[in-house]
Amino acid sequence: MAQASKGRLNYRCPSCFMRDLDIDMFYDTEKGEYYCLRCQYTGTEEDVLEMNEKARMRYKDMMKRFTDFEDFSD
Fold this sequence. Notes:
Order of helices and strands: EHEEEH
Number of helices: 2
Radius of gyration: 16 Å
Low-confidence stretches: none
Strand content: 5-15%
Mean pLDDT: 81
Structural class: alpha+beta
Oligomer: single chain
């Protein structure tokens, strides 16, 4: 395999990100895909972006301050 290099943009691995690990992915120019050295996740740029969007739903309200908890009690 070729020398590991960062891609044009630093994408984080969606599989690791769902487990609260912030791991950058590397880009393989021969295969045209990104891969993670830690968990062996591989995917195209579109796959990585789609999976990272799904993972971001966990943090959509991270910067929101909750003061009314009546909506959450069931």
